[in-house]
Write a structure and sequence with these properties.
Shape: globular
Largest sheet: 5 strands, antiparallel
Distance between the termini: 33 Å
Low-confidence stretches: none
Order of helices and strands: HEEEEEHHHHEEEEHHEEH
Length: 338
């Protein structure tokens, strides 16, 4: 089922119109992989909720996540019908209903994408996604992006737009954008991956490699896309790229998944007036991370080294590179019209 925030809002409004004395009101909104979902309303304060009901076989273990913006609470096993373990995500009074709706849809879809897995794994996927949202809420995300992060997001959106025009399609491309979800690489494309590094500096192309796993992964083929931007009067602003992506995602029903990724990227519309820099793509090189590519590899490091971050001057790389179309072909997704 393709959940949307509007579906939840409709369900919550319908529950608010009912007249009964119950502390909770519920309505079924679908299922995925044996997990049932209910929209809920907690009375008397009328706080919105989404409830996941897992079969008893899922194995309830460990504490539920705690954080800001919404509560995570266990409910009686007979929520709706069918028994099992019921976990409710309940908006706090101070929580923004818009962000809560986006969060709820994102959590539902995280389970839906993995619906073929055992119910025990689905419970873990649900809990981990909730934890990520709780961590985000605790961060606040109220400050504008730094100039460096603006360029980084500009580069990821540039690559996302390019993926829209491949065999993946718009919805498939949005689902591939994994960087905001704390994946090691920005995009997981079929069995491969693309890590995007962007700069608008006029000097050396200094890239930050944020973990050993970023360029040392089991996904293959793995590419590092180096995008250099230049300021130009006819260039695009970051809010314009976001608007383009939203329009495209709207056309295929992928808007909520895109919005979740933008939120995790710390992009907020109220900061848009501060993002007026116009950039155009001046150079793009796509390096395949082969065994000969210079980077840190786990197998070459002492077991005592558990994590590492390091810098790389991409202008000094003595490694072959290909253009974007060739990279997409090597990843197994052809560009339309190519």
């Amino acid at each position: 089922m393709a959940w949307a925030e509007s579906d939840l809002v409709t369900a919550w409004r319908a529950l608010g119109g009912r007249r009964d004395a119950a502390a909770w009101r519920f309505v079924s909104i679908g299922a995925a992989g044996g997990v049932r979902f209910e929209a809920g309303l907690k009375l008397p304060d009328g706080r919105e909720a989404v409830v996941a009901v897992f079969p008893a076989a899922a194995g309830a273990t460990g504490r539920l996540p705690e954080g800001q913006g919404f509560d995570v609470v266990p409910l009686e096993a007979d929520v709706g019908s069918g028994g099992g373990e019921a976990i409710a995500l309940v908006r706090r009074p101070e929580g923004e209903i818009g962000i809560f709706g986006i969060m709820a849809v994102d959590v539902l879809r995280s389970v839906e994408r993995m619906a073929s897995r055992p119910v025990g794994e689905l419970r873990l996927i649900f809990i981990r996604r909730v934890q990520e949202w709780q961590d985000f809420m605790a961060r606040g995300g109220r400050r504008p992006l730094t100039p460096e992060k603006q360029v980084g997001l500009f580069g990821e959106l540039t690559m996302l737009k390019a993926l829209f025009a491949t065999d993946l399609g718009i919805a498939g491309a949005v689902a591939c954008w994994m960087g905001p979800r704390r994946a090691a690489q920005d995009f997981h494309v079929l069995a491969g991956a693309v890590e995007v590094k962007s700069t608008a500096a006029t000097g050396a192309f200094a890239a930050k490699i944020n973990s050993i796993e970023q360029l040392d992964a089991e996904r293959a083929p793995l590419f590092l896309g180096a995008l250099r931007f230049a300021e130009a009067d006819d260039g695009r602003t970051l809010p314009e790229l976001v608007a383009d992506a939203r329009l495209a995602a709207d056309s295929v029903g992928a808007r909520q998944e895109l919005e979740a990724s933008l939120i995790f990227s710390d992009y907020r519309d109220d900061h848009a007036p501060q993002y007026g820099r116009r950039l155009s793509l001046a150079q793009e090189r796509c390096f395949e991370v082969t065994p000969a590519f210079p980077c840190l590899r786990r197998a070459d490091l002492s077991p005592a080294i558990t994590s590492a971050r390091y810098g790389m001057d991409l202008d000094r790389l003595d490694a072959p590179w290909v253009d974007r179309s060739t990279m997409f072909a090597m990843l197994g997704v052809a560009r339309h019209g190519a």
